[in-house]
Amino acid sequence: MSDQMNGAPPDLSHAGAVVDKAIEFMTGQDISPIAIASALLGGALGMLSRTMDDAGIVQVLENALASVRSGELRGGPDRH
User: Fold this and answer.
1) CA 37 to chain centre
2) How far apart are CA 34 and CA 40, in angstroms?
3) DSSP state, 52?
4) Any alpha helices (H) in the chain, and if so which ranges?
């Protein structure tokens, strides 16, 4: 994740590093990737719900969907 975090604010870089370590730990505990991702997504949505209104959360989710659809998360063009 460090390559993705270049130029990011220090708190974002720190949070990303903590999440990476948590994922590494859970993977080492043989927790399934879907369970890890679901728990992280649920936690992220819970955090957003405490800090943003519904319209803001929808915008974050729409941006995430756009990244998936564009292939940005896989480093390539849309795979549909």
Assistant:
1) 8
2) 10
3) S
4) 2-5, 10-28, 33-51, 54-70
> What is the number of residues in the chain?
80
pTM above the 0.85 mark? no
Q: Give phi and psi for 30, each to the nearest 5.
A: 60, 35
The pLDDT-based confidence of 13 (bands split at 50, 70, 90) is very high
Q: pLDDT by residue (tens digit) across 18-56? A: 999 999 999 999 999 999 999 999 999 999 999 999 999
Closest CA to 67 of 56, 58, 76, 57: 76
Report residue 72 as tokens: 């940005």
Question: 60, 52 in Cβ contact below 8 A?
Answer: yes
